[in-house]
Write a sequence for this structure.
């Protein structure tokens, strides 16, 4: 495989990752279901949903770390933090599309016209959809802070282990 084909494949995998990345973080929004009445004790639902949400966030952060390393090799390092935050903004918007607009990642393949029309409407009329932009921005900010904290802790741990 040539370098061009290898780079094309790598960027293709990156875009596939981006398509499914919001799913890892989306699980956090399942905590909304705690208000639903079931025959199961609330503490059980809380423990189960929180465990799934925490696992999703940790796996998502781990995959984002891998993507950050990929970006550092393929774009100027000074742009990487901006790109990472932008990816988290897209993740927040993906969470909005899933939670409130009920779109799924695979809809880009099964219902591309409807999904793209929905996105185009949000972009064309941003003031009509302030909730989507607020959710996207708040999720991105929360995830970025969480991610930077996690990478700092991990970095310090690695430094201590090698010292």
């Amino acid at each position: 495989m040539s370098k061009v084909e290898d780079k094309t494949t790598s960027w293709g995998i990156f875009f596939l990752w981006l398509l499914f990345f919001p799913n890892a973080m989306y699980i956090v929004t399942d905590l909304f279901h705690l208000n639903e009445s079931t025959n199961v004790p609330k503490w059980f639902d809380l423990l189960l949903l929180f465990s799934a949400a925490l696992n999703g966030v940790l796996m998502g952060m781990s995959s984002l770390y891998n993507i950050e390393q990929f970006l550092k090799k393929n774009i100027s390092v000074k742009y990487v933090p901006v790109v990472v935050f932008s990816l988290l903004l897209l993740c927040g918007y993906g969470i909005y599309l899933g939670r409130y607009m009920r779109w799924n990642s695979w809809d880009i393949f099964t219902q591309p016209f409807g999904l793209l029309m929905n996105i185009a409407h949000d972009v064309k009329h941003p003031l009509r959809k302030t909730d989507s932009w607020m959710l996207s921005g708040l999720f991105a900010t929360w995830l970025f802070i969480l991610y930077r904290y996690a990478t700092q802790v991990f970095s310090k741990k690695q430094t201590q282990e090698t010292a």
Summary: The two ends are 40 Å apart (CA to CA). Residues 3-162 form one domain.
